[in-house]
Write a structure and sequence with these properties.
The chain is mostly beta strands. The chain has 3 helices and 23 strands. The N and C termini lie far apart (54 Å).
Length: 382
């Protein structure tokens, strides 16, 4: 049954005319309470204190931070041997480190696989041909595609499985299909000399994952033997450097403006370097918000993560639905002073409609003090 949101735009007390800009002098802190991941109805509160100014937190539904650089058993010959770190019914998040040539092919029959190349470079061989992949690349591999990697440099890869479904590009609406990135920048594998050189009659194994168990399929030849193909389904490659972000010098755009891929029940967004808002009244850091319908995961890839303290490349933050989050105090103060004119951070965000769970491998690399990183002063007794 279709539905219509209850809509009654209303003003109460002292408030700004425009969200994320020109705050009342009496209150420095704006908080957005919104539905459906910035696409539904929303209200904006003006507070006298930071909404993240808690002094204590009891319970497990809290913001978390993980250092994925320290994950045990991430260095494996097959991506199906690395532990799942975050998961729900729609997606699985892993990290994988690889330094040696894969002798087996792998195939994910559970859903599309999205690889984000955090470190390293490699030759990718798959059903569709050959391509070189390198640091900063997204590589989308359609469900049940055979593939393998030959690293040129040691690889550190973020894996995001779209369980039971497929990836698509977001609708660009009024800005048109060529905004953010032109589809012409997407690369596909080639049936080139490198691909033809790996044709063989040698025994080859395919490690196929289905229902999270691995089946081994033996062939008396190399199944990567296509001489050509045509169609509109393929492995595709996109580097973050080809993303030209939507910007407004007068308004801090919500994270949804940076959506790169759409999955079933989640989106993948990319934050890339951009100028910081220059209008005197515009908010210059991410706004405090309740993303009350989505869990939010951020994988930090490179640069200075301007809204977070003590976060390094390869780390991950998790902000669950239902609580207010936003910039750390130092970042908020820096935004008020507007000394920095440009952000150079690169990060991958995963927003999931259904709540995420954590494996023991993830909790082993958790910073349990992250929940207190918004404190502006030491609590008495500490």
């Amino acid at each position: 049954m279709s539905r219509k949101w209850i809509s009654f735009p209303h003003k109460e007390g002292t408030c700004s005319k425009q969200a994320h800009a020109d705050f009342p002098k009496e209150a420095l802190y704006e908080r957005e309470a919104g539905r459906e991941g910035f696409f539904g109805p929303a209200s904006h509160f003006h507070h006298q204190h930071a909404p993240t100014g808690w002094s204590e937190w009891e319970g497990n539904h809290r913001p978390r931070a993980f250092n994925f650089n320290l994950v045990e058993n991430a260095h494996q010959h097959s991506p199906w041997d690395v532990p799942t770190l975050l998961h729900n019914r729609d997606c699985k998040v892993r990290v994988w480190q690889l330094s040696e040539v894969m002798t087996d092919l792998v195939r994910n029959a559970d859903g599309d696989e999205l690889l984000f190349i955090h470190q390293g470079s490699a030759d990718l061989y798959c059903d569709y041909g050959h391509m070189v992949i390198e640091e900063g690349d997204y590589v989308m591999i359609p469900r049940s595609t055979n593939w393998r990697l030959e690293p040129k440099q040691p690889m550190f890869i973020l894996l995001i499985e779209n369980s039971g479904s497929s990836y698509a590009l977001p609708e660009r609406g009024s800005v048109g299909n060529h905004a953010v990135f032109d589809p012409a920048v997407l690369d596909v594998p080639k049936i080139n000399d490198e691909f033809k050189a790996q044709y063989s009659e040698n025994d080859t194994r395919v490690l196929m994952k289905r229902h999270d168990s691995v089946n081994t399929i033996n062939y008396p030849f190399n199944p990567l033997d296509a001489i050509g193909w045509h169609g509109d389904l393929s492995v595709v490659r996109l580097n973050w450097r080809d993303i030209r972000p939507l910007m407004s010098h007068r308004y801090h755009l919500p994270p949804s403006a940076h959506t790169t891929f759409v999955g079933a029940g989640f989106v993948v967004c990319t934050f890339v370097p951009r100028p910081i808002e220059s209008d005197p009244g515009a908010l210059k850091v991410p706004f405090y918000h309740n993303n009350d319908d989505y869990d939010e995961v951020l994988f930090y890839h490179a640069g200075d993560f301007f809204s977070r303290d003590n976060i390094e490349a390869g780390m991950v933050t998790f902000h669950p639905a239902g609580f207010t989050h936003g910039p750390h105090p130092k970042a908020f103060q820096a935004g008020l002073e507007h000394k920095k004119k440009f952000t150079d951070e690169v990060a991958v965000m995963i927003d999931t409609r259904n709540p995420l769970e954590f494996s023991k491998e993830a909790t082993h690399v958790e910073n349990s003090e992250y929940v207190y990183s918004w404190r502006t002063k030491i609590v008495e007794g500490e």
